[in-house]
């Protein structure tokens, strides 16, 4: 090092004699040499740290070894610089290839795609893949999208994160079309008991006890034939609710459901318990559901396409499930709500067309696709048999028809054969299991109430 230093000084003195461009080039070279020389050597280097001292102390025989070692160090340092540069480069590229987007209020997929610089064609391809799921139509804060891009920054894959137990992966296939794959983890349901005494309205007291608005609405609906909540409830009436919350690992997915309710008002006692078929019954197994209609139509129409979860796409050969039953209804046919419930979606989709989704009692949902016109708004309550739409041929269809879906516990089932609520008691084959579960929940409620009275 010292020999280098002694050669530098005279050179620096002569710098003024060198043309400006050369001077700059030389300074740059010297700077680079200095950086490489001063770059800290890797700790794992096989050369002992004391070597330079020895070499400097005894010039001659060891000097060659010292030079070799120095050259090896230079080479090693150069390699490290190159590695560092390429690591930075690949980090920049990887960053450009993987993008994460957290959904904001009011977001739509089409707006997100245009802001990300993805084409309309890519949007249409992803929406085509989502046609049987319709998972991308309700993007909410808390959901997120992760995009994987190829070298040309074209969309290669997209993951929709709904919650820890529900992700959907959309992937570009060799033929350029997108496929989808649901990544579901049912997780575990943990139940808690909420109890309270009513002072003022049931709504206020239930909210104070920790029930959500949707859960309070469920309780209202379950008992509405037996009790007028605004008139008949006496101060001091008590309620107990067993609620289950869904977890994947230690993460709450935000899904919850009421599994049991008891309400004590004057001498009246009301009960509701959820059975694993998605329906509510009282403690003795009598139905609290209102019957569903098998068809959401006022008369029978020919079934033009059956429910088929394993249906293959005629062109791509990939599984493209048919999650509903198609009825050959001419455009303008009245579509009826299959049961009472609340309209949760009225949407327009390039493939599913104009469609409506209704949340019913218990764990039931229905969807009505390819409508000409919707006669209801999101948030509206509807009765069984109420006219909700006129059927049509909207979206990507070969002819006018109504596509009708029934979902139980968030999974599509065959609407023509499924065990729909018929306002009948618990089926005989699961009656014992139901009564055991009721006894268990009542015990849970009693314990919680006894504990609450102690404190
Ligand atoms: Zn269909």
UniProtKB/TrEMBL annotation:
Domain Opacity-associated protein A LysM-like, chain residue ranges per copy: 99-181
Ranges of residues in domain Csd3-like second N-terminal: 187-309
Lineage per the UniProt record: Bacteria, Pseudomonadati, Pseudomonadota, Gammaproteobacteria, Chromatiales
Reported cofactor(s): Zn(2+)
Membrane found in the keyword field: no
Annotated M23ase beta-sheet core domain residues: 321-415
Subcellular location: Cell envelope
Domain of life of the source: Bacteria
PANTHER family, alphabetized: MUREIN DD-ENDOPEPTIDASE MEPM, PEPTIDASE-RELATED
Database matches in InterPro entries: Cell_wall_metabolism_enzyme, Csd3_N2, Dup_hybrid_motif, LysM_Opacity-associatedA, M23ase_b-sheet_dom
Keywords: Hydrolase, Metal-binding, Metalloprotease, Protease, Zinc
Keyword Flavoprotein annotated: no
Protein source organism: Arsukibacterium tuosuense
Gene Ontology MF, one: metalloendopeptidase activity
Pfam families, per database record: Csd3_N2 (PF19425), LysM_OapA (PF04225), Peptidase_M23 (PF01551)
Protein name: Murein DD-endopeptidase MepM and murein hydrolase activator NlpD, contain LysM domain
GO BP terms in the entry: proteolysis
Primary localization: other
GO CC, alphabetical: cell envelope
């Amino acid at each position: 090092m010292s020999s280098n230093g002694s050669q530098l000084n005279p050179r620096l003195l002569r710098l003024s004699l060198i043309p400006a461009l050369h001077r700059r080039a030389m300074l740059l070279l010297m700077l680079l040499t200095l950086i490489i020389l001063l770059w800290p050597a890797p700790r794992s280097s096989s050369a002992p740290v004391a070597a330079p001292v020895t070499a400097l102390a005894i010039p001659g025989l060891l000097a060659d070894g010292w030079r070799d070692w120095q050259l090896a160090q230079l080479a090693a340092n150069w390699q490290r610089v190159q590695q560092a540069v390429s690591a930075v480069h690949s980090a920049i590229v990887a960053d450009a290839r993987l993008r994460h987007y957290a959904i904001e209020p009011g977001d739509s997929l089409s707006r997100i795609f245009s802001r990300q610089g993805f084409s309309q064609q890519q949007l249409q391809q992803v929406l085509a893949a989502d046609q049987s799921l319709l998972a991308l139509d309700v993007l909410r804060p808390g959901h997120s999208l992760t995009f994987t891009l190829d070298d040309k920054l074209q969309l290669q894959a997209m993951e929709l994160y709904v919650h820890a137990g529900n992700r959907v992966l959309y992937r570009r296939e060799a033929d350029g079309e997108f496929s989808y794959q649901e990544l579901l983890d049912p997780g575990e349901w943990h139940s808690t008991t909420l109890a309270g005494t009513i002072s003022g309205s049931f709504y206020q007291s239930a909210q104070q006890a920790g029930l959500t608005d949707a859960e309070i609405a469920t309780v209202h609906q379950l008992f509405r034939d037996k009790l007028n909540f605004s008139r008949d409830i006496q101060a001091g009436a008590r309620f107990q609710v067993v609620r289950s919350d869904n977890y994947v690992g230690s993460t709450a997915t935000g899904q919850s459901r009421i599994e049991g309710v008891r309400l004590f008002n004057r001498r009246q006692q009301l009960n509701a318990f959820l059975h694993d078929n998605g329906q509510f019954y009282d403690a003795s197994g009598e139905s609290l559901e209102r019957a569903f209609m098998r068809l959401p139509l006022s008369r029978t129409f020919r079934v033009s396409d059956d429910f088929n979860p394993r249906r293959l796409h005629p062109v791509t050969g990939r599984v493209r499930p048919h999650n509903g039953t198609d009825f050959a209804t001419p455009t303008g046919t009245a579509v009826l709500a299959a049961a009472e419930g609340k309209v949760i979606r009225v949407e327009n989709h390039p493939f599913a067309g104009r469609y409506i989704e209704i949340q019913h009692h218990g764990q039931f949902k229905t969807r009505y696709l390819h409508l000409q016109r919707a006669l209801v708004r999101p948030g509206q309550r509807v009765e069984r048999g109420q006219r909700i739409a006129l059927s049509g041929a909207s979206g990507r269809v070969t002819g006018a028809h109504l596509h009708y879906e029934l979902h139980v516990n968030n999974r599509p089932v065959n609407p023509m054969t499924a065990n729909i609520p018929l306002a009948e008691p618990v089926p005989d084959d699961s009656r014992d299991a139901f009564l055991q579960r009721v006894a268990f929940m009542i015990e849970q409620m009693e314990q919680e109430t006894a504990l609450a009275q102690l404190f």
